[in-house]
Amino acid sequence: MSNKEKYRQFCKTEMGLPIFVKDWYLDAVCIEGEWDVILIENETEILAALPYFHKKKAGFHYIIMPPFVKMMGPYLTSSGRNHKNPHRLYQQLIEKLPSLDGFKQDFHPAIKNWLPFYWKGYHSTTRYTYVIDLKNSLEQIYADLNRNMKRNIKKASTQLRIETNHSLTKFYELNQMSFDRQSVKIPYSFDVLEKHYQTLREQDAVRLFFAVDDQGQMHSAAFLIWDEKRAYYHLSGDAPHLRKSGSGIFLIWEAIKFAKEKLEVEYFDFEGSMMENVEQIRRQYGAVQEPYFRVWKYHNRLYQLLDFKWRP
């Protein structure tokens, strides 16, 4: 049995895996390349896994983050975390990586240790996501909201209603409007998003939310996904001429309530942002800053130069 086949079996029983590294999720999003996985095992079980997305372009071989994947990195099972030498497990994962021109992954916040990668010549920078602890009561979560957020939610709730029965086409239209407003090309086609969405639907791991007024105008839309522990505010979009309604703020609050009351997950994750204006809004929801590592290494100087050119 190949590592990939073993990992598929592993994903069926391992409850702690983030959604972004589950086999079916990677099947849907790893386009223009392929995913694979490195496993460290003992006689009876998997101790550590490192799923990765491998691309080839212009003769270069490299590992990067796939579309719609926020976080990857090594994963230790409970037995791996209790191993007498977890550093050695990380070192074994690194040693089994294929020959590459470059490696770059954003590690999940649960990964606190990248020291073995540092010992092997890798580099890292700290990035941040923002997380709401849903183990708190809904009353406490609401109390932690900034006064301005509460005012916008109250205002929007009198003018808008939340609907969940609209098509992915409608979502994509609003999503694209947000990119157009910033004069940025949307980084994925509708066909790519549709494959992603349909896979999530088959796994019962997605819900679309729309903020709609009495005239039927769609002000905002949100794309929420989840695993066993976290709900992720994955994608969103707003109609630029209707943004003053507070619909985007209202949608986030409704998504938080859904995650708390219906999904009963432990955390609501905004999937991070390093943009100052976005960070300020996340904090106004009472979200707590959670660091994660971006880890990389270049083995080829020419690829390093081209990587900067190829970045979206």
Account of the protein in words:
This protein is an alpha+beta fold. The chain has two domains: 146 residues, Gcn5-related N-acetyltransferase (GNAT) (Aminopeptidase, 3-Layer(aba) Sandwich); 130 residues, Gcn5-related N-acetyltransferase (GNAT) (Aminopeptidase), CATH 3.40.630.30. It is 38% helix and 28% strand. Strands 1, 2, 3, 4, 5, 6, 7, 8, 9, 10, 11 and 12 form a twelve-stranded mixed β-sheet that branches. The model has no long low-confidence stretch (mean pLDDT 93).
| CATH fourth-tier homologous superfamily of the largest domain | Gcn5-related N-acetyltransferase (GNAT)
- Number of strand elements: 12
- Overall helicity: 25-40%
CATH architecture of the largest domain: 3-Layer(aba) Sandwich
The residue-averaged pLDDT reads: 93
Strand content: 25-35%
Number of domains: 2
Radius of gyration, Cα only, in angstroms?
20 Å
Largest sheet: 12 strands, mixed
What is the CATH level 1 assignment of the largest domain?
Alpha Beta
Reading the helices and strands in chain order gives HHEEEEHHEHEHHEHHEEEHEHEH
Question: Could you please say which CATH topology of the largest domain applies here?
Answer: Aminopeptidase
What would you call the shape? globular
How many alpha or pi helices? Answer: 12
N- and C-termini, Cα separation: 37 Å
Structural class computed from helices and strand pairing: alpha+beta
What are the low-pLDDT stretches, counting only 5+ consecutive residues below 50? none
